[in-house]
Amino acid sequence: MEHLQLPALSGSAQWVGRTLDPGACADPVSLLASLAEEAAEDAQGGRRLLDAIDTIGLLGSAGWSPDNGPRLLGERLGVKPHCEIETAVGGEIPITLVNHVADRIVRGQTRVALIGGVHLMRVLKAAAASGERPNWPSRSGGAPQVLGEPRSGHSEREQNGGLDAPIHLYPLIENAIRARLGRGLEEHREALGRLFAPFTRVAAENPYAWFPVERSAAELTRISAANRMISYPYTKYLNAVLDTNQAAVLILCSAEAARSLGVPERRLVHWWGGAHTQERAWNVSERPEIGDSPALRECARRTLTRAGMTGDDLGIADFYSCFPAPVQLACDAYGISEDDPRGLTVTGGLPYFGGPGSGYPLHAIATMSQRLRAQPGEKGLTTGNGWYATKHSACVWSTEPPPPAVVAPVEARAEVGPQPLTVVDAPSGAARVASYTVAFGRDGQPSRGIVVADLPSGERCVVDTPGDVPFLEDFVAREQVGATGIIRDGAGAPVFIPGG
Question: What is the pLDDT of residues 48-75, one digit of tens each?
Answer without folding.
Answer: 999 999 999 999 988 888 999 999 999 9
